[in-house]
Amino acid sequence: MFPTLAVPVIAAPMAGGASTPELVAAVSEAGGFGFLAAGYLTVEQLAEKITRTTELTDAPFGVNLFVPGTRSTADISSYVQRVTAYADKVGAVPGEPRWDDDNYAAKLELVLALRVPVVSFTFGLPDHDDVRRLRAAGSTIVVTVTTPSEARQAQQIGADVLCVQGADAGGHRGTFTDDGISPGGGELYGTLAAIRLVQATVGLPVIATGGLVTGADVAAVLAAGASAAQLGTAFLSCPEAGTAAAQREALADGGRRTALTRAFSGRPARGLVNRFLIENSAHAPAAYPNVHHLTRPVRATGELEVMSLWAGTTYALATAEPAGEVVRRIGAELGEVVESLAERFGRR
After folding, report:
1. Residues near 255 by beta carbon (within 8 Å), at least 6 away in sequence
2. Which residues are CB-contacts of 292 (< 8 A; sequence separation ≥ 6)?
3. What pLDDT shows up at residue 348?
4. C-alpha distances out from residue 238 to 62, 117, 261, Å
5. Which of 135, 142, 150, 323 could bridge to 26 as Cys pair (CB 3.0-4.6 Å)?
6. Above 90 in pLDDT, residue 1?
7. Distance separating alpha carbons of residues 11 and 24, to the nearest angstrom
8. How does pLDDT run across 8-26, given as a tens digit for each residue?
9. How crowded is the C-beta side of 66, counted as CA atoms within 13 Å?
């Protein structure tokens, strides 16, 4: 099962560069647990990151895989034209709007071969045979879910733990399917509501994620029944994170609101509002990862107004401390909350 943690804090897998071996190791060494993000990496790059992490810490850590979805049949020609116009402004060439499976099969074989202690899945489900093989290799299987229905499906394929994602979470929604209509791709639940609804549906252990930054946040989800809290935005400003300089500045400023959008990748994701998000959200098709590949060269220019600035709704509460200090501070805050509640309700 999932490792016992001294501090019930998990560093979320953040694809695109934020999740580094240094971040994962620092969180794990401080008594939490860290995930490497396999999304968008080559198999060779993922192998290097796993190796580097094992060099930095003897503590267990996990790897997150993107489950490939079906090919989109949406006509995205008009959106290609919109992105091309933006690319011209920032001196970039749009990427090819293609579908791929993120080298899923090869990455799965890698984590199997390396016997990664915890393997998590986002955007869908591994099949029964993959679950059987992972179990045989000694891996714990975590599936990201956003609704009770997804939780039920994850239980049926043999997941050990569910990562329940609330609507406040930064980055991509973990929905199995995108309805292409609603901002979040489907039903949106707050983190606490999602935990309660999922636990009323299945009996698996739950990790909570979405808008969690402080020890009080962690206390709230533990009280709701979660075994641990998974934090992403809370670690984005840490020196160990691979967060781009422009995004660090925007996070530190704290003046932007967040919104869900398909504009950058073709899949709903929450980020800081900038010009690209405002002007393109209403036009972006539900076509992932086609749109991701299309906009990637534009985003890579580092221009703040065209970047995907993923962040959760409570990002302004995050700090720029080293990752180990974040874990220790949250652990101390959690202890203070528990002590305060005990004084108020348990010692009469």
Report:
1. none
2. 264, 265, 266, 267
3. 54
4. 19, 25, 25
5. 323
6. no
7. 7
8. 999 999 999 999 999 999 9
9. 23
Distance CA 311, CA 177 (A): 22
Predicted local confidence at residue 347, as pLDDT: 59
Token digits of residue 282: 């209403």
For 144-168, give one letter per residue: b (16+ CB within 10 A) or e: bbbbbebbebbbeebbbbbbbbbbb
Cβ neighbours for 192, distance < 8 A, ≥ 6 positions apart: 166, 220, 221, 224
Type of residue numbered 230: Q
Half-sphere exposure of 333 (CA within 13 A, CB side): 17
Token couple for 6: 């001294």
Among the residues of 200-274, which ranges form H helices?
215-223, 245-253
> Among 303, 246, 247, 305, which residue's Cα sits nearest to residue 275?
305
Are 57 and 33 a contacting pair, CB within 8 Å? Answer: no
Q: How many Å is the Cα radius of gyration of the chain? A: 19
Averaged pLDDT for residues 224-236: 98
| Pairing relationship of beta strands 171-172 and 228-231 according to DSSP bridges | unpaired
Per-position b or e across 171-180, b if 16+ CB within 10 A of its CB? bbbbbbebee
Alpha-helix residue ranges (DSSP H) falling in 209-342: 215-223, 245-253, 275-280, 290-299, 323-341
**What span, in angstroms and rounded, lies between the C-alpha atoms of 28 and 31?**
5
